[in-house]
Amino acid sequence: MGKDTRVTTKAGSLAKFTTLLVTILGGFFAFSAQAQTNLPGIAVNFGQGADLVDTLEVLGLFTVLTLAPAVLILCTCFTRIIVVLSFMRQAIGTQNLPPNQLLIGFALFLSIFVMQPTGKLIWEQAVNPYMERKISTAVAVDRIEIGLRGFMNKQTRKADIQLFYDVTGEPAANSIDEVPIHYLIPAFIISELKTAFQIGFLLYIPFLILDMVVASVLMAMGMMMLPPVVVSLPFKLLLFVLVDGWQLVTGSILRSFH
User: Fold this and answer.
1) Total of domains in the chain
2) Strand, helix or coil at 235?
3) Is residue 84 part of a domain?
């Protein structure tokens, strides 16, 4: 009897929730129909009347949207920033503090700060004219590429670009502006990783010295069973706070792009 009562109660609650959901959706669609807002739409046509070229353009658009996170990570300053912040966390010795979500969010906002001039240029010369239907899609894509190239050209080392010409055996370009984009992007990534590891090495040095000092003191005191990391961690945190470490690290990252 009790089991049947619980089943009936659950069924009644489910029915009430379904009715409420249908009512909310119905009111939303009714409001949308009365407001007559000009919302962008998309129509997919299969069979007769569908143009193959239009279908391929839609597929290309969805492909670009899928690759957008990769473009954000690999073609901007995000790579260098997140690698340096990860090195900073490992050098201090805190395992998951700050957490990954915090580091990624901080790196994202720093990337927005660094890429603001490039983003403004792309918006004014490519995105805004395209939204106003003043230029075609091909022209907009070319201008976006030019904007990103302007940033990547300044951060890419010539030796990293030359690597891809040596592998393919093709003659090197006369200037960096003539380097194909599929050569420039991986060369830019290699340059960013190299710079990030150089900064990470410099960040490790003071904390490594502190670990060595603590280990030597513990060994001299005969406390060899006590892990040096346990003792050195509070001193690392104290040192990092006293020198205002986050400001120094952030300033070093931002200055490395100029």
Assistant:
1) 1
2) helix
3) yes
Examine residue 34 and state whether it is found in any structural domain, yes or no: no
Query: CA 105 to CA 94: how far, in whole Å?
Result: 18
Structural domain boundaries enclosing 216: 76-255
**Is 176 part of a structural domain of the chain?**
yes
Predicted TM-score (pTM) of the model is 0.70
Q: What is the pLDDT along the chain (258 residues), one digit of tens a residue?
A: 444 444 444 445 444 444 444 444 444 444 444 444 444 445 555 555 555 556 776 777 777 777 777 777 888 889 999 999 998 888 888 878 888 899 999 999 999 898 888 888 888 888 888 888 888 878 888 888 888 888 888 888 888 888 888 888 888 888 888 888 888 889 999 999 999 999 989 888 888 888 888 888 878 877 777 777 777 888 888 888 888 888 888 988 888 887
Nearest alpha-carbon partner for 257 in 76, 74, 85: 76
Residue 9 lies in a domain: no
